[in-house]
Amino acid sequence: MSDDMWDAPVDDQPLAGDYIADPDAERILAAAVMARTDLVDDLAVQGFDPADITTDRYRWIWFAVEQIRGSMDPGAIRWEAIDRQLQAWRADGSMPTVPATQDELRQLCVEAAPGSASWAADRITKKGIARRFVEHGHKAIALGRSEAFDPDADIAAAQLGLDGVVRPGAEDETIQVGDVLETVLTNATTPPTNADRVPTGFIDLDAVLSGGWAPGQMVVVGARPAMGKTTFGLCLARAAAIRHGLPTLFESLEMGRAELGTSIVAAESRVALHHIKQGIVGNDVEAMQRMIKRAPAIKEAPLFINDNAHLTMPALRARVRHLVRTVGLRLVIVDYLQLMQAPKAESRQVAVSELSRQLKLLAKEFGITVVVLAQLNRGPEQRTEKKPMPSDLRESGAIEQDADIVILLHREDAYEAETPRAGEADFIVGKHRGGPKATITAAFQGHFARFVDMAQS
């Protein structure tokens, strides 16, 4: 390749036309990293993404420095080395654009001001965010004007897209172990409170879980049909929201809001569920008084119910984001996993695996606890003891893998009516990341739509 061809005019256009950009900052950054190659690593650790550089030749200079920095003196780099790398990419077709000329590379070496690299990278990042923000707005406008506009799907998708406007920084989270010692010692001598744990409502279960659910955890509660998955989920919701005032979201894909409300009132007031459904509670003065007494606490509780049977991850994520921002959401309960709208995938197992992974990421990102109710396969019914195991989770081993805690519900009287353990239920903690496994025995009061500690029964 001749020097004449190499020194051809350069394409100064940004990546996608007339976008928001700061070419001067991009030039300053290109010059800086040529002078000090270690800046490429330093800025990457701080979260800088070279994709935000809109001018092609400056972006490829960054890539060239990144490619050859290991073999060069970090203190200074000759422009010829950059030129050779750019020529190699241009020759093999991996670089589709015309690179910087040799004259410009020489000039950048003269202009280099490494001390301005952080300022320039910050400017470029902000312009990148602004550019994506504007693009997102244009897409939202196009969706809104479309005849095929679907409020549920399109607004949820737009909210999800808005999260991508500001990419999370890749700050270096590497620390020396001594830096966490003080925190560990403090935690070791300070019992957890509602500020950092969500009580389950069951004394023995809380003891196993060191005070309750922890932020960032995904908890899977598995059971065969008719074991009481929804009842258990509502017990957790009542304990958090009604008893402790912690904002809770209950996503029901199977039961309607009226049916859920009926179960909550029955459990809180100890009034027979079937009496409420039959409308004959007025014949029982004491039962009516119990309902009236518990009504204010139920009404004021920060318990939010959504009974949309077509729950998608974008919709759930949007709802969680809103409630975290407005009320400080602490707990999400999904009833149940296999009924969620799974993303398109090559198989149902892959789709459920993706749902499981996204639910775990949801818990971690927003610092909340996500409890996912899930159905088990027929494995327990094929065993003599009938007791479930984590491997019985239907459709995907990823559910067990992603979960921090797996609790399996088991009631012997569901299989044998005359069992001496009639009215008892086992909460089998089959997986507990960072804690002990255990089996907690509770009382099942199906007529009140609730589980309670054995002492309360």
List keywords for this structure.
457 residues, alpha/beta, nine-stranded mixed beta sheet, 17 helices, disordered N terminus
Descriptive overview:
With 457 residues, the protein is an alpha/beta fold. It has 17 helices and nine strands. It has a nine-stranded mixed β-sheet. Strand 7 (424-432) and strand 8 (438-445) form a beta hairpin. Helix 5 (79-92) runs antiparallel to helix 6 (102-111) and helix 8 (151-163) crosses helix 15. The longest helix has 29 residues, at 117-145. The chain starts with a helix and ends with a strand. 37% of the residues are buried. Mean pLDDT is 80; it is low at 1-17.
Q: How much beta, percentage-wise?
A: 5-15%
> What is the strand arrangement across the widest sheet?
3-2-4-5-1-6-7-8-9
**For this entry, what is the oligomeric state of its chains?**
single chain
Find the structural class using helix and strand composition: alpha/beta
**Roughly how much helix do the residues carry, as a percent range?**
40-55%
Major beta sheet, specifics?
Answer: 9 strands, mixed
**SSE order:** HHHHHHHHHHEHEHHHEHEHEHEEEE
Query: How far do the termini sit from each other?
Result: 87 Å
- Count up the helices: 17
What is the number of strand segments?
9
List low-confidence stretches: 1-17
